């Protein structure tokens, strides 16, 4: 009898397959008030691909992806103010052509779009109550003009330029966020480990799982348009 494949075991949610809570202890967000804040510290967060800026504002602390060139002790405008890298403004106050990141999907949600290192969106046009942004995916999306966004480019753009070289380094990168790595090919496994395991001659077995099969059983040809051998 076979055993649960790794995807199914991970989906079960045991302690072995959970990321440690400390990695995600810092939450990115905004405070919807106007004034001046101060960057009190730049933090290297394990769970994020970019450094985070720890910002003090009106006696409260919040975290935001650091802009390229941001330094500790820097004062930033929040809600309204000068159009300068690192400042957090409403989209209606940001001129067309400016680069922005950590954009709110709706006012008050703390930022949902463009949050990875080296990324940015561009303000392309302004409409009645809406602002159009060109995202890194090359899609143009309309946002509410009262949504907050940070001006500039997210720091850490060179993260992917240096090759990993050693497998051990990649292992620890993935482990810090509990990502599945390395991934073994299913046909190279034993029959007890996967439905595609063993197989004399290493031929991939034809398998069509049920549409609502659980993650561990949903392997093979998913939702095929047709089945059976093709007639010549």
Description:
- The protein has 232 residues and is mostly beta strands.
- It has a domain at 21-77 and 85-151: SH3 type barrels (Roll), CATH 2.30.30.30.
- The protein is 7% helix and 23% strand.
- The protein is built from two helices and ten strands.
- It has helices at 6-12, 167-176, and strands at residues 35-43, 52-57, 60-65, 75-79, 88-90, 99-101, 121-127, 130-134, 140-144, 148-151.
- Strands 3-2-1-4-5-10-6-7-8-9 form a ten-stranded mixed β-sheet, with no helix packed on it.
- The model has no long low-confidence stretch (mean pLDDT 89).
Overall 3D form: elongated
Low-confidence stretches: none
Distance between the termini: 38 Å
What fraction, in percent, of the residue positions are helical? Answer: under 10%
What is the strand tally? 10
User: What does the radius of gyration come to?
Assistant: 23 Å
CATH-level-2 architecture of the domain at 21-77 and 85-151 = Roll
CATH class of the domain at 21-77 and 85-151: Mainly Beta
Which percent band covers the strand fraction? Answer: 15-25%
Helix and strand content put the structural class at mainly beta
Oligomer type: single chain
Report the CATH topology name of the domain at 21-77 and 85-151: SH3 type barrels
Give me the side-by-side strand order of the main sheet.
3-2-1-4-5-10-6-7-8-9
Mean of all residue-level pLDDT scores:
89
Compute the number of helices.
2
Helix and strand sequence: HEEEEEEEEEEH
The largest sheet is: 10 strands, mixed
